[in-house]
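Subject: sequence -> structure tokens, single chain

Hey, anyone have a minute? Need the predicted structure for the following. Not urgent.
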Amino acid sequence: NILLIGSDSRAGSGNARYGRDLGSQRSDTTILLHLAADRRSATAVSVPRDLMVDIPGCLQGDGTRGRPVFAMFNHAFELGGSACTVRTVEKLTDIRVDHHMVVDFSGFKDMVDAVDGVRVCLKEPVDDKAAKLRLPAGEVTLDGEQALGYVRARESLGDGSDTERMRRQQRFLGALVTRVRGNDVLLNPLRLYAVLDAATSSLTTDPGLANLGDLYRLVRTLHDIPTRHMQFLTVPREQYVYDANRDQLVEPEAEKLFKRLRADQPVVVEGQAPEKPQAPQKGTNGGPSPAPTYTGNTAAEQGCA
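Reply:
Had a minute. Here:
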């Protein structure tokens, strides 16, 4: 289980255009990636930044330990960085996080440029001043700067909601995986090392992924996973009862998702059917229970076709 954290840090060349760096960072995007034990599937679960959660007492930047607090999820990164975000996700899901990665604006752009851009499908032209983004409709290959604007835009793409933004981020990650697999990056060690070297200039990881060799072995496993088994979804959530601008988990659906991930059992995203029924669980009578279905997409669902 790997926690992918996108920081909103404006540090680095050209990032001041996206607004003033406020000194403290927040997690703009957080995704829990579960790689199946047999490495035949991968499930990426987005955690909304506005989700109301219990944040445990975390070690803060000044060396003191803060008190537990009930707050928006992205406040955890602001309080105690990636360590606090990891602890918050583990408390929320009861899933052990084995590794984590933090990528800032510069690292994201470098990653996209290192694979010579990522192709996406736009149903209509984009002109988003806040995201500094202007693009035509149709299939477009985005460079790093354009890709950053694309995944962050809210005003001119879709309905402007954070839900739409997360879905767009998920589609982009699927397109990025397709790009990496399609241009033989994964089969070319020299090329893959070059891509990882470019990305790690602005990438922070735990010690278990601290060198290029560790990252290489991890990314290389993606080659054997069919794109239809690379799934992207968001934790089941709804409007928070006390604030329409915040989210809360939908239960028992959220716990069912977390339970299946803990048990390394499959889930199904909308539009994807299970290939074969699962074996019945002990203590049940009748046929096997089907994998629950969640709204999302797979890496195979790319392009304008």
